[in-house]
Amino acid sequence: MGPDTYDLVSLLRDSYVDLTEAEVDDLIAFFNALRCGPGEQARSEDNDEFRRRFDLMAIQRNLKALGTFGFQTISRGNPVYIQYIPRTLNYVRENLRRYPRFDRLAELLAAHIAEVR
């Protein structure tokens, strides 16, 4: 058992998939509607909290993916993952910008990865 956001982040913020923000918002809303019972509607606070946790999980997964891509490229000499780095960096950058509490993390990352700025 893991966080309820994990699988959805795996699908919607995957390094190999390019979805618009509107598509992600719609799919998250659809997922939240399915989590409610028939005829029920999620409260906006619940949806907001779920989105916050979704974004935090995306940051964690995407940073992990970037580490894997770097390891595969540098240590294993496998350049196939280089093509996915820009999209993944974009996901990280956008999610860090969304939450002021991660300003310091963004600053630390930007000191080593210019694309995080």
Textual characterization of the structure:
This protein is mainly α. 64% of the residues lie in helices and 0% in strands. The chain has helices at residues 6-12, 21-35, 44-74, 85-98, 103-110.
Condensed summary:
This protein is an all-alpha fold and 117 residues long.
Per DSSP, the total helix count is 5
Portion in strands: under 5%
Supply the number of structural domains: 1
Element-level helix/strand string: HHHHH
Q: Which keywords apply here?
A:
117 residues; 5 helices
Helix and strand layout, with pairings?
Blueprint: H1 6-12, H2 21-35, H3 44-74, H4 85-98, H5 103-110
Helix pairs in contact: 1-3, 3-4
